[in-house]
Design a protein that fits this description.
The chain has 126 residues and is an all-beta fold. It is 0% helix and 52% strand. The protein contains no helices and eleven strands. The strands form two sheets. Strands 2, 4, 5, 6, 9, 10 and 11 form a seven-stranded mixed sheet that branches. Strands 1-3-8-7 form a four-stranded antiparallel sheet, with no helix packed on it. Strand 7 and strand 8 form a beta hairpin.
Length: 126
């Protein structure tokens, strides 16, 4: 059974940083494209960043480019999201998701992802 678990969320002041981690069991993340999404109450889940199965390509949404960095820790079987220069607009529940296709490339389409974590809350507030 595949399970993804996000961790690292919390309360941070504007301008601060957080590092989220997506840990998997039942699957090797290294062979799948992985994305991070954010959901705010009343809004659709928005794509933030992805990393290809090989780790050779990363893509970012406009709102996080230059501030967020997605990376793999292959030995730990995790995908991390380093978030810097956080603003209140970054508040939300953050989810990681696994592409349904083996050796998948980067994609920002939520329908390409079949396994999701339960989410971790990030709150940016002074």
């Amino acid at each position: 059974q595949v399970q993804l678990v996000e961790s690292g969320g919390g309360l941070v002041r504007p301008g601060g940083s957080l590092r989220l981690s997506c840990t998997a069991s039942g699957v090797t993340l290294n062979t799948y494209g992985i994305s991070w999404f954010r959901q705010v109450p009343g809004k659709e889940r928005s794509w933030l960043a992805c990393i290809s199965a090989t780790g050779g390509r990363t893509m970012y949404g406009d709102s996080v480019t230059g501030r967020f960095t997605i990376s793999r820790e292959r030995i730990k079987n995790t995908v991390d999201l380093q978030m810097d220069s956080l603003s209140p607009e970054d508040t939300g529940v953050y989810y990681c998701a696994r592409n349904i296709r083996l050796l998948s490339a980067c994609t920002n389409n939520p329908t390409d992802y079949g396994d999701w974590g339960q989410g971790t809350q990030v709150t940016v507030s002074s």
